[in-house]
Write a structure and sequence with these properties.
Number of helices: 11
Bound molecules: adenosine-5'-diphosphate
Strand content: 15-25%
Shape: rod-shaped
Number of strands: 11
Largest sheet: 5 strands, mixed
Length: 452
């Protein structure tokens, strides 16, 4: 699968995951808030239900005779809570404050008077306090943990809140509240943020898909352009080779020195165009990175001399010097593809001469290294600004030059040189300073590498 398609899929998944994590975080926060709200309502409902019973009980007391009241007071445990250590209850997580203990000691009093919790009152108080309709169930347990009473939705599942609460200090009874917070409540509550997040997600996905379509269309366009170029290139080769053959035939048929020079000049010019056509053919071939060329023994020094001679001819009308500094042992051979290496070398030397003023000097240094050979092509031309030094190796990339600095070109040369060097397992790079010149270097390993 194409890289950009994989990246688009990753971007799409990332956007969706991001949205999910956002929604799950707001859902978590919502459940947390609801839990706090329920917890508070639960406590207040217990308290108020108790208060209602107290009031009822006090009113009842007032209507009794002194003897009846005394007999009731005998049952009631008095100030029992004062002997209790609050820390023990805190550790158990049952009661927090002395006030809680006081309230619950009253619960024991009511239990002994058989004035038990009024479940419908508790439930309606809870519902009023919570204000949102939530499926829930209160269950009252006795000392043996047997359910004695319950109110609310008897069959609720997926419970989000469940709290067991002892009533009184003597463990006579306890209460449990189970609550379910349905998804609909969450959706209703957070509809604004959910819609906004959905909208943003759709927008982001739309943008990513739009990009994908643009890239695909561009790719299709490029493919068509490459195909057209391939046909033109193919048709161009025949007239060029014919012209080259004519130049050679004319030379063979005629002894005139001037004609020989003119035919050599023509031959070189045509050869140069042919090389460029070949490069363009490689660059636009369906699988430009694969070369089906065989390795052979190459004399790098001789190859460089050939390049120098061709470039001297090609730039005959521009004042220049090309110097070869050969650090290789005599007759030194490397394994490689001569056509590709020569093309890379010619591109670098030509560029050195092309992107410079009259009087330019190009030095080609050949050296043996630990792992193979190194080639440096140094010029004292215009140099390359740092921001372009990496980009120039990309296919079709050209530095925008204007006026006197404008030169003909296709942006294929350096990319082709790079492909050739990489195909041999070498490296290519540039060091340059604007106004001072550039040094293009490449290495070729000495190891026997098969290029496929
Ligand atoms: P072309 O020469 O056809 O434009 P290349 O791929 O050979 O394509 O080079 C890409 C660009 O890099 C050129 O347009 C040029 O601006 C810049 N460049 C290449 N070599 C040199 C050099 N020796 N000195 C200055 N600029 C260079």
């Amino acid at each position: 699968m194409k890289k950009y398609k994989i990246i688009t899929i990753i971007a799409g998944i990332a956007i969706i995951l991001l949205q999910f994590s956002y929604i799950s975080s707001i859902y978590g926060k919502f459940i947390q808030d609801m839990t706090l709200k329920i917890d508070r309502a639960y406590k207040i409902a217990i308290d108020e239900e108790m208060l209602a019973r107290e009031l009822r009980f006090n009113r009842l007391l007032l209507s009794l005779t002194k003897e009846q009241r005394d007999s009731i007071y005998q049952i009631i445990p008095r100030a029992e809570f004062l002997d209790i250590d609050i820390e023990d209850y805190r550790k158990l997580g049952v009661f927090e404050t002395s006030g809680d203990i006081y309230t619950h000691s009253r619960e024991d009093k009511h239990f002994q008077l058989k004035d038990l919790m009024d479940m419908p009152v508790l439930d309606s108080l809870f519902c009023a306090l919570i204000s949102t309709k939530l499926p829930h169930r209160f269950t009252l347990f006795d000392k043996e943990m047997q359910a004695t009473d319950s109110i609310g939705n008897s069959h609720i599942t997926r419970i989000n809140y469940s709290k067991y609460q002892p009533l009184g200090l003597r463990g006579f009874q306890s209460l449990q509240l189970d609550v379910k917070i349905p998804l609909e409540v969450f959706i209703k509550d957070e509809i604004g943020s959910l819609l906004l997040s959905l909208l943003l997600m759709l927008l982001a996905i739309f943008c990513v898909l739009f990009q994908l379509t643009v890239i695909r269309n561009k790719e299709e366009e490029l493919k068509q352009r490459d195909e057209a170029t391939r046909y033109i290139v193919h048709d161009l080769k025949t007239p060029i080779t014919t012209a080259m053959t004519i130049a050679e035939t004319m030379k063979a048929l005629n002894d005139d020195k001037l004609l020989h020079e003119a035919m050599d000049y023509n031959y070189n010019k045509f050869n140069h165009v042919l090389q460029q056509v070949e490069e363009l053919k490689d660059a636009t071939s369906e699988d430009a990175t694969r070369y089906k060329l065989q390795m052979q023994q190459v004399n790098l020094f001789k190859l460089t001399q050939r390049v120098k001679e061709e470039c001297d001819m090609l730039f005959a009308d521009k004042e220049h010097t090309i110097v070869i500094t050969n650090g290789l042992p005599e007759g030194y051979l490397i394994m490689g593809n001569a056509v590709m290496i020569e093309r890379a070398m010619r591109n670098l030397v030509e560029n050195g001469l092309k992107y410079a003023d009259h009087g330019v000097q190009v030095e080609i240094r050949l050296n043996k290294t630990e792992k193979g050979v190194s080639v440096d092509v140094q010029d004292n031309g215009w140099g390359i600004a740092p921001e372009y030094q990496k980009k120039i190796f990309k296919l079709y990339f050209r530095i925008p030059l204007e006026g006197d600095y404008e030169r003909r070109g296709s942006g294929v040369g350096l990319s082709s040189a790079k492909s050739a060097v990489l195909a041999h397992g070498g490296k290519i790079w540039v060091e340059s300073e604007p106004g001072k010149g550039s040094t293009f270097s490449f290495t070729l390993p000495a190891t026997r590498k098969r290029i496929t």
